[in-house]
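Q: For a teaching session next week I want to show students how multiple molecules come together into a single three-dimensional assembly. I've collected the sequence lines for a complex. Could you give me the predicted structure tokens for the whole thing so I can convert them for display?
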Amino acid sequence: MKKTISRVGELASIMIIVWMLMILMLLFIDRIIVPITIPINGTWKIIFESIIKLLMSGATALLWFFIWIQLVERYVSKTSGRNNV
Amino acid sequence: MIIQALIISFISTLISTPLIMKYMLKIGKVGVDVHKPNKPDVPQMCGLGMLIGLIVSTTIILFVEYDPKILTFTLTSIMAAAIGIMDDIIVLRAKIKTSLTVLCFIPIALMALIYPQQIILGRPRMPLIGGFRLTIVYWILLPFTIAVPANAVNMMDTYNGVMSGGCAMAATSLLISSIILGQQSEAIMSAILLGITLAFYYYNRYPAKAFPGDTGSLMLGAAIGSIAVIGRMEIVGITVIMPFIMNAFHSLRSVGGLLERREIGERPVKVIDNYIEANLNPKAPKTLANLILRKGRATEIELIHAYHALCLISSIMGVVTSILMLVRI
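A: Of course. Below is the structure for the complete assembly, covering every listed component.
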């Protein structure tokens, strides 16, 4: 049990951080990105707003992915070279 | 109905799997358990037992009370299993198999058009937020909601009982989440999934007497994906299969995309006597096994326990996510 915890502890931490960031990202999209309005009138307003919201949400999701990759990369570089019990 | 679904699916899989195992041994459809020192032959494609369990249980439930959600879940799972059967028999190229699994969203899309009141697409529920309205984006992402879990689960079928045990934990989490959210149909689907995975785990656990093949793994992944989509629990779905996604995402990223096993020069792990070690070559795929074993070599059973520990944590996170879905801030 102890051995299993020490073996997966760091990976489990990464997983929990990624999960919490996912929830925060959704909250950020809902509270900050969704209410965005641009000060123009006419038919283009809805199109521009949708494009901006889509791009900003996509960028937020990419940032989340980037953090996930960086966390795993850090773990990989930290554990490279260890292979014994 | 939840208890009945669990019992029927469990018993039907428990009975059908040994029959499939015997048949597969008879026709010589076996796979080598490469992580054992004596490299035993184990019957392949035994996921057919789970498929039988799923069909028997859903047929009985639909006969008692017709529910379009359960029919959709069944059709999606059967479609993924059919792709798995094709792959187990004629061995499809990785890219073709993945492309075919993308089509598994079709039953959900069609049933949502026929039953728009029961199957609501484009309105996922989010933790701390509530309902979220996605229109065009949701339909663009919809094909991947089944293909991603199906392939992620398929890619984690590498050690005895890892895939079936992990899916059983995911199904338990989905079942508890459905009950928390008061969703009867999704709870029944999750109970069916739990029944078939628990029964199959009995044969697939270390040391494995049966391998599920792509038939079983693609079907289970698609089943998890369909419960998440039909129940508007997409975030719970992503959370419960996080170890599977982590395994698939980081290994694909490290090898540069979908490749055949023979196209990958380096294996993620090395088997030395009774121990499994991480392959530290930078070109080796960064599978979850590779990442876990970087902390030190392990026996197969120790590695399986490590996998299950991660699946248990993600399953608990899944339940917490569903509780957060009831909270608004």
